[in-house]
TrEMBL record:
Hydrolase found in the keyword field: yes
Family that this chain belongs to: Belongs to the 'GDXG' lipolytic enzyme family.
Keywords for the protein's UniProt record, in alphabetical order: Hydrolase
Name of the protein this chain belongs to: Alpha/beta hydrolase
Coiled-coil stretches: none
Pfam families recorded: Abhydrolase_3
Classification via Gene3D superfamilies: alpha/beta hydrolase
Domain Alpha/beta hydrolase fold-3: 83-289
PANTHER family reported in the protein's UniProt record: AB HYDROLASE SUPERFAMILY PROTEIN C4A8.06C (PTHR48081), ALPHA_BETA HYDROLASE FOLD-3 DOMAIN-CONTAINING PROTEIN-RELATED (PTHR48081:SF8)
Keyword Ligase: no
Amino acid sequence: MHPLHPNLQPWLAEYNLALKQKADAGYKATAIGAREALAELTRQQVAAGPAVAWVNDDLAPGGEYRVPVRIYHPEPRRPLPVLVFLHGGGHMAGSVSVYDPICRRLAAASRHIVVAAEYRLAPENPYPAGLNDAASVVKGVWDVLDERRLPYRRQLALAGDSAGGALCASLSGKAAADGAEPGIARQVLIYPCVDYTLAQPSVAENGDGYFLTANRTEWYFDQYFQHDEDRRQASPLYWPAAPNPPATLLITAGRDPLRDQGLQYGNQLKAAGAQVEQLHLDDQMHAFLNMEALVPEVCQLVYRRIGAFLNAE
């Protein structure tokens, strides 16, 4: 088994010790703590910036909810393709504000108009509220850009990390199955969750001591699925192969409980005829993009690969 990146090891030891001390002091998991923890981690480890020429907030039309979005246009006088970004956080945490520096990096690296969605979170808004919001943004993104009179190319890609990757895979899978137009041309899945049943060996192998634990993941999903939904049916990994799946860049980490489901999903997409690029980082763990100060060269590699993939002919 490949060891964890040396820069991550001392940080992780301190993190695990702090978790134990919090538990001993009576800490109880709530949405408050989950949201604060992800926000604080990202503030500490991901520097602000880079500058993007045009950044503004707007609302995407939707049946249930007008979804707040933030638009990052790196060249506002030039029509660029569009990348809808869906943040991670276990369907409970994260926000456009927390992920702002990551969105800026994506816009700079990809030369795409990044549209980041402030989808609703559990437990206040359980499944399928967040998925419905993501679908509204994908459907309504062109109207938002038209209203802003921003130049764009009608070429759509999705990107998301962790739970955001789950939303991306769900949307692209449904779109491919339905033959929806305009189709999703490409997707970037960053250590995605595509199996809400957590049935893979890596859940046990990496499920304790590597930042994202199996117990924590199950807790996230218990907050998300509150009405006895069939979690297998909600998992893109188990859906029938759809015709014409989008080209996919799949990024996985060796010390991640979600590793195996991501790798398995990539193999399934290949079998269905998708163009799949895989970037597997053996010495990384879940959420490493939110730990950029610890592994800057790894994060720079990831952004370069994302940019190259999204701009490939």
